[in-house]
Amino acid sequence: MIRVLLADDQSLVRAGFRALLDAQPDIEVAAEAADGEEAVRRIRELRPDVVLMDIRMPALDGLAATRRVTEDSGLKDVKVVMLTTFELDEYVFEAIRSGASGFLVKDTEPDELLRAVRAVVAGDALLSPGVTRRLIAEFAARSKEPAAADALSGLTEREREVMALVGIGLSNEEIARRLVVSPLTAKTHVSRTMVKLGTRDRAQLVVLAYESGLVRPGWLG
Asked: Which helix (H) or strand (E) holds 32?
């Protein structure tokens, strides 16, 4: 059973999400929170699998709350998905840099929300379909200066290649087809790369691919 915590200051939004999620045989809403402080408190108490976190909340916003969660080593298995009203919310890229596993716009289709919850539990980065690649490129272009080139010095040539493909938004299956290897082999390369670089999840691997200069904005077309 996938346990979800809903953090949003709008009760109607929480009610809508709860009705959808609780109707699924493999998902349950463990708790709700109306602000960031309450969200962090309940997350530490309940340790849910996934947190759907609104970016704009009173007391403590979703971005600051996400940092508290992702910086807590005891909560390393908790996946945070940011919720935003706007596809190009200025905080989205910073949220992913802070450790969020991705983001969704609030008016996403119900099936996509369910897919998102299951995807992050499976270890995949989740970025709203149709927006992912241009959004990452947009915010990467505005991010801090690229990290030193030696940040990737511990990677093999194949791992760098795989990381670049993750960076431009390819799934394990797409990477496997591109490199003519099995999906399991592609997944193994991605996992080893994440371990070597100390990234929390696939979303942070995407960010590092940009920050290191391995992938550059504009490659996505």
From this structure: strand 27-33
Coil/strand/helix, residue 167: helix
Q: How far apart are CA 106 and CA 126, in angstroms?
A: 14
Query: Taking the chain, what is the end-to-end CA distance rounded to the nearest angstrom?
Result: 39
Q: How far apart are CA 134 and CA 119, in angstroms?
A: 20
Looking at the chain, how many residues does it have? 221
Between 31-45, 78-92, 193-207, the lowest mean confidence (pLDDT) is in 78-92
Is the pTM here over 0.85, yes or no?
A: no
Q: Report how far residue 55's alpha carbon sits from residue 8's, in angstroms, rounded to the nearest whole number.
A: 8
Q: Choose among 87, 17, 144, 24: nearest CA to 32.
A: 17
pLDDT digits (tens, 9 = 90+) for 12-30: 999 999 999 999 999 999 9
- pLDDT (average), residues 173-194: 92
| pLDDT exceeds 80 at position 54 | yes
Reading phi first (left if > 0) and then psi (alpha if -120 to 50, else beta), residue 178 is in: alpha
Phi/psi of residue 27, each to 5°? -135, 140
Please name which of 158, 140, 142, 160 lies closest in space to residue 150, comparing C-alpha atoms: 160
